[in-house]
Amino acid sequence: MNSEYAGSGNAFRSELDALRAAFPPEHCLPPLGWEAVHTFEYEHGIVLPDPYRTLVAEICDGCPDGPADVDGLIPLAALPADWGCDQRQRVLAKPFPLTEAWVWEDDPRPYEEIEPLIDEVSNHGSVVLGTDGSGMYWHLVVTGAHRGRIWNISDVGAAPFGAAFGHRTEGEGFAGWVAHWATTRRPWFDVVV
């Protein structure tokens, strides 16, 4: 077992230390606690990926000054105010359907054909972390091949975040996304050209 491994929530101690530094309690909502996190997971048929899981249980359940531009990091069970009224279609236990970026605005198929696929991308297998406004949402994938990765889903397409996908930032997943925001203050889409 790695010496940096923290038994609580199965997150690496260094990641948790960085998250605690990025989300000071005086600027954040209180954590949910493990019982509430386990209840959420049971109700949705999922296990949240760490270190996000430990963050909402032990550090904070959202932070208005967090990574997303409009509302910061929103609470676990919340959706951004501009999400829309039809929230019952979200099924976290269904696998997130993508493994590579998809710009549906450029997809040659008729919209009627791709509309159900777009709905799956927005509503299946992820929790929403926040919004940058104008229909741009940050998602943490909780089920499927990209479990633990961060995706930006907008009205024109969806793209994964992290070095493996052409971004300059070293980190991936939730910890990398937060580190990018907390330490670099570079634009989110700092793709290497």
Automatic annotation (TrEMBL):
The lineage of its organism: Bacteria, Bacillati, Actinomycetota, Actinomycetes, Kitasatosporales. It comes from the Bacteria. This is SMI1/KNR4 family protein.
